[in-house]
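Figure 6 in text form: structure in, sequence out.
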């Protein structure tokens, strides 16, 4: 299986591709590692998807100005409070409103799609924003079983997930345009893509989106290690598996044309506010949203006032206590301390922060406060 983010065959003196710089983030200020943003494009009660997407543009611009390394959006379906069902469409919108920050999927759920379609979508994104597009891939459905069946047109939910390594290999072949002679897809080309460089008079960018594998257990950790790919772990909803998965990734890692050493980021739920009590209120509203989602009642993200008025059952309170134990929240100083500790405990190479709250203004302020606490570059 060929994995080459540049397509030009060159390497730097470490044996890594030049585009490795797009994988390895740059640390700014006093941050322990590079900081990035994961956006679920959340929709609060009383707000529209249009409002949520406008907030995403504002946060992406802020993240770019403040020195966050990358901005990813995640694929979810059939969830009223999450407007990120089409990552490629959202990323195209963000590319039009930013100029430097890396943009990517965190991730595209590959079993939901034909590999050729994803190669075409991200080839198009790369043409729109050369050298700053990441392709993060997951094997989960990003939704419930019935919706996954509708997406995958399969009777068995695990039918696509079981084939993930084969789908990944096929997608990579389409991105590199290097199916072997005699392969049934040998005459099929993902466009935009390398075929344009070999056509008469053709000129094609040397870049292609680097592939990341995403996971919340050991499967993708091991696969990313064996293939020498960067790995992103969903600590924000699978914290108990974080260290085992990162250990497995590092133990399994084999140097590749993409990376000469492991590189792992973790998704972190963190929210900073000017007042500690306000942080608790916002986090409780987000937790109520998760309670509803986990009990089959997905909806818009409730307001803090709605969460305060809600009568939680004992089971719901137990869930919220467990859930919020992994949400770093409070003042900027408290969040900074929590992020520092997490980076130290896990050895993560990058922290990707997702700030879940009802209002877009709260999320925007949180990323600004976190940047301030680490002395990241000031907005220009």
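Output sequence:
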């Amino acid at each position: 299986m060929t994995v080459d983010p540049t397509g030009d065959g060159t390497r730097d003196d470490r044996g890594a591709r030049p585009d490795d710089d797009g994988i390895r983030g740059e640390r700014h200020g006093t941050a322990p590692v590079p900081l990035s943003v994961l956006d679920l494009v959340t929709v609060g009660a009383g707000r529209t998807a249009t409002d949520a997407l406008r907030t995403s543009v504002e946060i992406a611009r802020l993240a770019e100005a403040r020195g966050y390394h990358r901005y990813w959006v995640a694929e979810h379906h059939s969830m009223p409070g999450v407007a990120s069902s089409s990552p490629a469409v959202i990323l195209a919108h963000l590319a039009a409103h930013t100029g430097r920050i890396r943009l990517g999927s965190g991730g595209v759920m590959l079993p939901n799609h034909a590999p050729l379609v994803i190669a075409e979508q991200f080839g198009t994104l790369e043409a729109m924003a050369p050298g700053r597009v990441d392709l993060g891939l997951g094997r989960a459905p990003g939704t419930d079983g019935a919706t996954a069946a509708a997406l995958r047109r399969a009777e068995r939910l695990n039918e696509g997930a079981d084939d993930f390594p084969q789908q990944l290999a096929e997608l990579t072949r389409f991105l590199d345009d290097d199916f072997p002679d005699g392969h049934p897809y040998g005459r099929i080309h993902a466009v935009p893509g390398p075929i344009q460089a070999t056509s008469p008079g053709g000129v094609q960018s040397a870049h292609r989106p680097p592939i990341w594998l995403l996971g919340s257990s050991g499967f993708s950790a091991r696969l990313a290690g064996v293939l020498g790919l960067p790995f992103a772990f969903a600590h924000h909803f699978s914290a108990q598996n974080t260290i085992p998965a990162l250990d497995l990734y590092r133990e399994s890692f084999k140097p590749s044309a993409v990376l000469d050493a492991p590189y792992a980021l973790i998704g972190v739920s963190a929210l900073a506010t000017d007042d500690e009590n306000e942080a608790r209120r916002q986090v409780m509203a987000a937790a109520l949203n998760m309670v509803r989602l986990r009990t089959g009642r997905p909806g818009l993200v409730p307001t803090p006032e709605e969460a305060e008025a809600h009568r939680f059952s004992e089971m719901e309170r137990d869930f919220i206590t467990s859930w919020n134990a992994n949400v770093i929240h409070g003042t900027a100083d408290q969040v900074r301390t929590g992020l520092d500790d997490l980076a130290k405990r896990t050895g993560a190479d990058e922290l990707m922060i997702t700030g879940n709250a009802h209002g877009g203004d709260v999320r925007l302020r949180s990323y600004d406060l976190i940047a301030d606490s680490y002395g990241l570059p000031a907005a220009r």
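Caption detail: The longest helix spans residues 276-294.
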